[in-house]
Amino acid sequence: MTTRQQAVALDDKDPLASFRARFLLPDDVIYLDGNSLGPLTKAAKERLQRVIGEEWGQGLIQSWNAAGWHVMPQTLGAKIAKLIGAKSDEVVCADGTSVNLFKLLSAALQLRPGRRVIVSDDGNFPTDLYVAQGLTKMLGGDHEFRLVGADDIPAALDQTVAVLMMTEVDYRSGRLHDMVDLTKKAHAAGALVLWDLCHSAGALPVDLNGAGADLAVGCGYKYLNGGPGAPSFLFVAERHQNHIHPAIAGWHGHAEPFAFEPGYRPADGIDRMLCSTIPVLSIAAFDAAIDVMLEADIGQIRDKSIRLFDLFVNLVETRCAEHGFQLASPRAAAERGSQVSFAHADGYAIMQALIERGVIGDFRAPNLLRFGFAPLYLRYQDIWDAVDALNDIMATETWRQEKYAVRKAVT
Ligand SMILES: *Cc1c(COP(=O)(O)O)cnc(C)c1O
User: Fold this and answer.
1) Residues β-bridged to residue 161
2) What is the pLDDT of residues 132-151, one digit of tens each?
3) Residue 28 CB: number of other CB atoms within 10 A?
4) Pocket of ligand 1 (CB under 6 A)
5) pLDDT for residue 407 is more than 90
6) What is the pLDDT of residue 221?
7) How far is the CA of 195 from the centre of ligand 1 (A)?
8) How sure is the predictor about 408, in pLDDT bands with cuts at 50, 70 and 90?
9) Closest to 341 measured CA to CA, from 35, 120, 97
10) Which of 11, 100, 267, 382 could covalently link to 217 via disulfide, CB atoms 3.0 to 4.6 Å apart?
11) CA 205, CA 184: separation in Å to the nearest integer?
12) Residue 141 in 3-state DSSP?
């Protein structure tokens, strides 16, 4: 069993150690929820102050041109592209993940005329499922949303399927799906694949073009530290871009937005996937945070994430052995993302007690305690201290206090 001293020694040798100083983390907090909301970078805080004070405050409307606001979806998209194995003109950043899912699912149906089935796994994130349900309902009943268990996906792919929609890393268990294999199987059936990278981008190396992926979306506010409500990004492989007629045909996806023509003409390439005026402040914060992440090596991030996970699981299973935590994530590194979940019948109250102790993870119904590992600011000693706090809460039965059973709106 690793001692605290050994954990500190691992921090001393950590090639990513210097990145922690780039974040503004509160004292006395061990943050294991970067998979839900990444923390604030110093760079984002400084950028926002400049954008508000100078670009908005002084430059006013001229900043659309002078400060390059109008090209931010593309410039930030090109940066994100480096993290996900895409070309710089295959990614834009704008709108929420759910909205981008709608745009891309509807595009996929257009790209496969005659096919009317969307396939996904039943453990997928609810908003992904809801968007597919809403879209098929809107299309009048001729379309089918086929929901199957993750292991039954290959068998569900037949000649009627237009698109397979998968989240690469399962938000509950952290299970990592095989992007190369599933993409190949979907293509063999003549279907497209839409990958949701919400729990992958910034957490592990992703190679969309290496896998031959068609479409993808991903979240800005999780591992990419873009800030609360940061816009998401979307990817369309170059070969598909000019064949899409966007379902949400907004003026920013028009070939000449400032020609103010009454008729819609899509812009060339990925730009047609834009629709609305962008949230400049949010995109500016996201852009600054991405620059920090791009300084790090994603291979080193993955390597440390695997080690943090192994240390956490090993300590919980040895030090907290008699407290009834059941590992609910794959143990093998190749089969998981950058989070771990433990099932426990009293998971909600235990997590509340842990949060009050300064160890912040989250709870996912019905019984999962979830902990995310973000290697740029987490230390091995934090993992040791977090499990120490968990063990103490269990041993002293602190979690049984009534206040910890009260459910909050956001868990
Ligand atoms: C977090 C998350 C989302 C979030 O969707 P928003 O529209 O940005 O709120 C969507 N899908 C998955 C898989 C997620 O993990």
Assistant:
1) 117
2) 999 999 999 899 999 999 99
3) 7
4) 96-98, 125, 127-128, 167, 171, 196, 198-199, 219, 232
5) no
6) 98
7) 12
8) confident
9) 35
10) 100
11) 19
12) coil
Closest C-alpha residue for ligand 1 atom 6: 97
**Which pairs from 367-370 meet CB under 8 Å and 24+ separation?**
367/343, 368/172, 368/328, 368/341, 368/342, 368/343, 369/325, 369/341, 369/342, 369/343, 369/344, 370/35, 370/172, 370/339, 370/340, 370/341
Summarised one tens digit per residue, pLDDT across range 64-108 is: 999 999 999 999 999 999 999 999 999 999 999 999 999 999 999
- Sequence-distant (6+) residues with CB within 8 A of 115 are 109, 159, 160, 161, 162, 190, 191
Torsion of CA 387, 390, 394, 400, to 10 degrees: -170
Q: What 8-state DSSP symbol labels residue 254?
A: B
Residue 361 pLDDT > 90, yes or no? yes
Instruction: Tell me if 85 sits within 8 A of 204, measured CB to CB.
Output: no
Average pLDDT over residues 44-67: 98
pTM over the 0.90 mark: yes
Please provide the distance, in angstroms rounded to a whole number, between the alpha carbons at the two ends of the chain.
32
Ligand 1 atom closest to 219 (CA): 8
Q: pLDDT grade, residue 20 (50/70/90)?
A: very high
